[in-house]
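Example 3.2
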Amino acid sequence: MGHFTKNQILEIERALSERAIRDSELSIVNALSDSDLVPIVQDGTNKTIKYQHMVSDMSNKKHVVLSESEYEELKNRGELNPEVFYYTYEDEEEA
């Protein structure tokens, strides 16, 4: 695996920021169709889901909000419920 110098990393960062698109620069969606794709991150992997499937899945499940660490604890114990739609948030840094 190659290694980069600090200057190379800074140059890469600069080049990426010049090409970046801010959320506010994206086109506004007026209406979604059932076949539109929505990007998501599932288990750390970028994926897409059809809008109709996402809405159907979300409307048929109980919704629970957990910290990432609480979610991971449930996952590690094998206690995630497939009938629940989990929302997670980042744990606050300990001082």
